[in-house]
Design goal:
Blueprint (H helix, E strand, L loop, with lengths): L1 H19 L2 E4 L1 H11 L1 H23 L3 E10 L5 E5 L11 E5 L4 E14 L1 H68 L5 H36 L6 E4 L22 H22 L4 E14 L8 H4 E12 L7 H67 L5 H35 L5
Parallel strand pairs: 1-6
Antiparallel strand pairs: 2-5, 3-4, 5-7, 7-8
Helix pairs in contact: 2-4, 3-4, 4-5, 4-6, 4-9, 5-9, 6-8, 8-9
């Protein structure tokens, strides 16, 4: 008795917890908006933009003053030896070299140095290239958004189609259940044979399995949609959009330009990067100019403790200057590099023709596929309506005693096959619509 009560309480808690979960209502637009904020691919693309911003700031930092501090304390346990003519050493034999150890047992060097770039063509071109790289990251972010919208749209439509399929399967289940009960009554009253009941029973058994499979497929489709949204799988959602034939009226092609495709815009940015890469090699021929300065102190003593006697043992020094570096000859290295980069630029130009032809072909293919899929869907819709009429007439004839049970079973099978064909055609038309809108740059 105790165990039974505990189980009941636990079950009640689960029911209350499930009821407390919020069901998120989502239209297709709301779903895409949610995905653009939560999808992991979008989040990573945003981080790529932050990385690009960091690269720009890193390049700017190289042009700012560079300051370094150095401290060197050494114990010279073996002093280096220098060779001097004997004439410099009193009492040494003339004409010989005398080895003399120079230095102190302890030495120190402390300094602060600063440098400022005045002119470096590579720096300015690199800064411009870094900003262009950031622009490229932004466009790749846009491409990620388009890909996510495409995936979410297809997953959303898959849920709607599976939902409609399940609803129709439920109706078929109820229809066959009624037909089975009626056939059993007719058999009991002597108006039908045992084989008639068996035929309907087979169809009913099949629709039960079909209903279970459709329920599972709807769950899988919803999980896929949540995955594309970047949403936890266990969160509950309810789709608010409905599928009507009007949904295919908003994919008409307007004016199209290659710039509407983000791939074309990315290629334009890649061209600018290639041009900047060439420019960077050219400016390497220019001289570099830097200012520098250093301030410090040195010490040399025979006692390590005296190194810390700042006032008496350390001697100041300082210097400032300007440094110019002029490239003269590098074995034609820059020339060879420049030729390679020009070839790469030519490849980018060739990619324009390749991309334009690819876009033209894609638009043509997607448009034809979209138009054909819509026509196929309309035909299958008409077939489904006709097969429904045939089934209803056949059933009425059978109930009136002027038709056979086999005709009803065949009409039912044709009706369910027509339903399957329609939903397949409907889903294909929806996918073709998404693909076509993406091909003309009208998806995002």
């Amino acid at each position: 008795m105790y165990k039974k009560t505990l189980f009941t309480l636990s079950l009640s808690f689960v029911v209350l917890f499930a009821a407390a979960q919020e069901v998120r209502q989502m239209s297709l637009q709301e779903a895409t908006d949610y995905a653009l904020e939560h999808n992991q691919n979008i989040l990573n693309a945003k981080l790529d933009i932050e990385v690009a911003e960091g690269v720009v700031k890193e390049n700017i930092a190289t042009g700012l003053p560079q300051i370094n501090a150095n401290l060197d304390l050494a114990y010279n346990f073996s002093l280096p030896v220098s060779f001097l003519p004997s004439e410099f050493i009193p009492g040494a034999p003339p004409g010989e070299q005398v080895a003399v150890a120079f230095g102190t047992k302890y030495s120190g060097n402390a300094s602060v140095g600063a440098s400022q770039m005045v002119f470096d063509g590579v720096f300015f071109v690199g800064l411009e290239a870094a900003k262009t790289y950031k622009e490229l990251s932004t466009k790749k972010h846009i491409k990620s958004k388009i890909d996510v919208v495409e995936a979410v749209s297809k997953a959303y439509y898959a849920v709607l189609v599976n939902k409609l399929t399940l609803e129709l399967v439920e109706k078929n289940y109820g229809r066959l259940d009624t037909l089975l009960q009626e056939t059993k009554e007719m058999y009991q009253n002597g108006f039908a044979e045992k084989i008639d009941v068996s035929r309907v029973q087979v169809q009913f058994n099949n629709i039960k399995v079909n209903r279970e499979n459709s329920t599972k497929m709807l769950g899988v489709a919803e999980s896929l949609l949540k995955f594309q949204l970047g949403m936890p799988i266990n969160e509950e959602i309810a789709l608010t959009d409905e599928l009507t034939l009007d949904i295919f009226d908003d994919a008409k092609e307007g004016s199209f330009g290659y710039e509407q495709r983000v791939e074309y815009s990315i290629l334009q940015t890649q061209e600018r990067l290639a041009l900047l890469d060439i420019k960077r090699t050219k400016v390497e021929y220019l001289p570099k100019l830097d200012l520098y300065a250093s301030l410090g102190a040195i010490a040399g003593t025979g006692s390590g403790a005296n190194l810390f006697n700042i006032g008496n043992e350390w001697f100041d020094f300082g210097l400032a200057g300007v440094k110019m570096s002029v490239p003269v000859f590098d074995g034609l290295r820059k020339h060879r590099v420049l030729q390679q980069k020009k070839v790469k630029l030519q490849q980018v130009h060739n990619n324009y023709d390749l991309l334009e032809n690819s876009i033209n072909l894609e638009i043509e293919q997607k448009q034809v596929a979209y138009e054909n899929s819509v026509k196929t869907m309309n035909v299958q819709l008409e077939n489904m309506k006709l097969s429904q009429e045939v089934y209803e007439i056949t059933k009425e004839k059978y109930q009136a005693g002027v038709g056979s049970n086999l005709e009803v079973i065949n009409a039912d099978a044709d009706y369910k096959q027509a339903q399957t064909n329609f939903f397949i055609a409907l889903y294909n038309a929806l996918i073709a619509k998404v693909d076509y809108k993406k091909s003309i740059g009208n998806l995002l």
